[in-house]
From TrEMBL:
The active site is at E78, E109. It catalyses: N-acetyl-D-muramate 6-phosphate + H2O = N-acetyl-D-glucosamine 6-phosphate + (R)-lactate. This is N-acetylmuramic acid 6-phosphate etherase. Belongs to the GCKR-like family. MurNAc-6-P etherase subfamily. Specifically catalyzes the cleavage of the D-lactyl ether substituent of MurNAc 6-phosphate, producing GlcNAc 6-phosphate and D-lactate. It is an enzyme of class 4 (lyase). The gene is murQ. One of its GO terms (biological process) is peptidoglycan turnover. Pathway: Amino-sugar metabolism; N-acetylmuramate degradation. SUPFAM superfamilies: SIS domain. Homodimer. NCBIfam families: N-acetylmuramic acid 6-phosphate etherase, PRK05441.1, PRK12570.1. It holds the Pfam family GKRP_SIS_N. Its EC number is 4.2.1.126.
Amino acid sequence: MQITEQPSLYDHLEKKSVREILEDINQEDQKVALAVQKAIPQIEELVNQIVPRMKQGGRIFYMGAGTSGRLGVLDASEIPPTFGMSPNWIIGLIAGGDTALRNPVEGAEDDENRGWEELVEHQINEKDTVIGIAASGTTPYVIGALREARKHGVLTGCITSNPDSPMAAEADVAIEMIVGPEYVTGSSRMKSGTGQKMILNMISTSVMIQLGRVKGNRMVNMQLTNHKLIERGTQMIMDELGLDHDRAQKLLLLHGSVKKAIDAYQHS
């Protein structure tokens, strides 16, 4: 039996108090970061192969179904506002399309050909990377996409919570994060989902830092989409250039990003 389907270490959940339930879940969640830690060598290997490809214009495609697909779409959607990158650099694809973000789409994850068809629609090429996400490691939509991508010389990676899965067999770099059985048996939106979110954050953030989208420890390329972010950007420019608030903010709004504002000021 797959680890993700094994019975919970806890039973009679309906008889527990709210406090007991919360403490049990928290106890299980504490295992997640340690499971991710063990997978760092594989995460590192994947990032090290992605960065040179992206420097040549390659993209990352995240692919998954259900929770895994939603988390891929979430991570991809946060790259443009955080790092000022075009939404075409990291793309999240979910079985069943955007409808599946809110509603289950019957049978979508069982179509072994659809994933690759979607990649072809995006003009997939050998500079790109496809990362499959599936707690079980058995999702046909993802496995089919990885298999075809690999045949076409595309770098493939995967994130799973079961060792030696069919999905891992199709990946050049398999990230196996073994978090153990879920609190509610088989509910992989819990520990597996938490671990996937952590690993996706690690991949995208480290790639963006390597591509020069962070200066010091700051998001100097973030999009100025609300008052909080404009104020944060203004503060960065004040700290970096020693300007007063109004002058820093004018500079920021003129150039549209912290990085561009600082570069323009220093070269004026």
